[in-house]
TrEMBL record:
One of its GO terms (molecular function) is transaminase activity. This is Aminotransferase class V-fold PLP-dependent enzyme. Gene3D superfamilies: Aspartate Aminotransferase, domain 1, Type I PLP-dependent aspartate aminotransferase-like (Major domain). It comes from the Bacteria. It comes from Gemmobacter denitrificans. The keyword Transferase applies. Residues 28-287 form the Aminotransferase class V domain. PANTHER family: ALANINE--GLYOXYLATE AMINOTRANSFERASE 1, AMINOTRANSFERASE CLASS V.
Length: 396
């Protein structure tokens, strides 16, 4: 039997704050009643600052991030369209697989799992695409499998300097709400996220930020869509509702989560994520282990993927943490299975929770055979977190 708190340090779903859980404890309600629109609008409008848009629209699809990957594609593209993508981790890999399944013609640039989006190669390909055959560029802003954050602004600059008109699709599933996301400034046409990571809510809602240009593309896109028809959804949102039954408790939860983020202040939310991520990275350095991200500039502030020593199977670390310490750590995905474990540090998190994650990972690492000094990671993170307390002068 597991006793005490369950420690959830996977990179999503993340810990749901008590206030959000309580906000979801509502009686079922009439989603076609006129006042349901207040809830719908609170969420769509509340998402806009988080997405960094004033010009874009927000669509809420029952489903998840994967659903919104599909919604972005099927509403704006045509079967056989060429699209440019990078594959540098499990999620960028899955999005590329989806593009194939939906009969797009993806130009895939493979780079190391641990690298960021290859902006220079993108710039070269876009510059060479004189006939404008590439209809969309896909970017995984934060590759959750490797803990790598890519430079979306640089991809926008590559598109602009090639005078290329392709749509820009960005997967922000593990970035939006935790690190700055500037949909308008970066000229993002489709911004994809889900409710269960930085937005501190249960899984079940896919959220799509849609630029006016993407909406325009819906007019000519002939790919079949039904459940994910964006125009149907936006038309329904405009009238305050959904084309089908929405998960109302989730909307209540997300509204409460957005209110919390607004109260904390988005810049403070981002600074907190940076501070906590820094602590985790210091701990990894103290253990003498390596981070999957190839360069410090790529290191994600929402998840850290940690390479275990060659003789230590990362799966064993994860198993020990879960079985003995009731602590969930993220696993290594695809080719990183057994080589990497991940600490998710996003959402409703504070220093104490991060220190717990580090302490339990440290225990599990040592029990799995890693030669690590107990307490070294915790001490390094504490040193990163410690802040001087302003003293009141005696005269005051
Ligand atoms: N994209 C990224 C970067 C993710 O981390 C995930 C899930 O972890 C997804 C897409 C898929 O999202 P979902 O599981 O909500 O369908």
């Amino acid at each position: 039997m597991k006793t005490g708190l369950a420690h959830l340090y996977i990179p999503g779903p993340t810990n749901v704050p008590e206030a959000v859980r309580r906000a979801m404890a509502v009686p079922m309600q009439d989603h076609r009643a006129a006042d349901f629109g207040i809830l719908t609008a609170a969420v769509t409008e509340g998402m806009k600052p988080v997405l960094g848009t004033t010009k874009g629209h927000v669509a809420l699809f029952p489903g998840s991030g994967t659903g919104c990957w599909e919604a972005a594609i099927c509403n704006t593209l045509n079967s056989g369209d060429k699209v440019l993508m990078a594959r540098h981790g499990h999620f960028s890999h899955l999005w590329a697989e989806m593009a194939r399944k939906l009969q797009l013609d993806p130009v895939i640039v493979d780079v190391a799992w641990g690298a960021g989006v290859p902006v220079n190669e993108f710039a070269r390909i876009l510059g060479a695409d004189r006939r404008g055959e590439i209809k969309a560029v896909f970017v995984t802003h934060n590759e959750t499998a490797t803990g790598v954050t890519s430079d979306v602004a640089a991809v926008r600059a590559a598109l602009d300097s090639a005078f290329h008109d392709a749509l820009l699709f960005v997967d922000g599933v593990s970035s939006i709400g935790s690190i700055p996301f500037r949909m308008d400034d970066w000229g993002v046409d489709m911004a994809v996220t889900g409710s269960q990571k930085g937005l501190m809510s249960p899984a079940g809602l896919g959220i799509l930020g849609v630029s006016p240009k993407a909406l325009q593309a819906c007019e000519t896109a002939r790919m079949p869509r039904a459940f994910f028809d964006l125009k149907d959804m936006l038309r329904a949102h405009e009238a305050g509702s959904f084309p089908y039954t929405p998960p109302a408790p989730l909307l209540h939860g997300l509204r409460a989560a957005l209110a919390r983020m607004q109260e904390e202040g988005l810049d403070t939310v981002y600074a907190r994520h940076r501070r906590l991520a820094n602590g985790v990275r210091r701990a990894v350095a103290a253990w003498g282990l390596e981070i999957c991200a190839e360069h410090p500039l790529l290191q994600s502030d929402t998840v850290t993927a940690i390479r275990t020593p060659a003789h230590v199977d990362a799966r064993e670390v994860i198993r020990i943490a879960y079985d003995r310490y009731n602590c969930s750590l993220g696993s290594g995905l695809g080719p990183l299975a057994g080589k990497v474990f991940r600490i998710g540090h996003l959402g409703d998190l504070n220093e104490g929770m991060c220190l717990t994650a580090i302490a339990l990972a440290e225990l599990a690492l040592v029990e799995a055979g890693a030669e690590i000094t107990l307490g070294s990671g915790v001490a390094a993170a504490q040193a990163a977190f410690v802040r001087p307390v302003a003293r009141q002068s005696a005269a005051a």
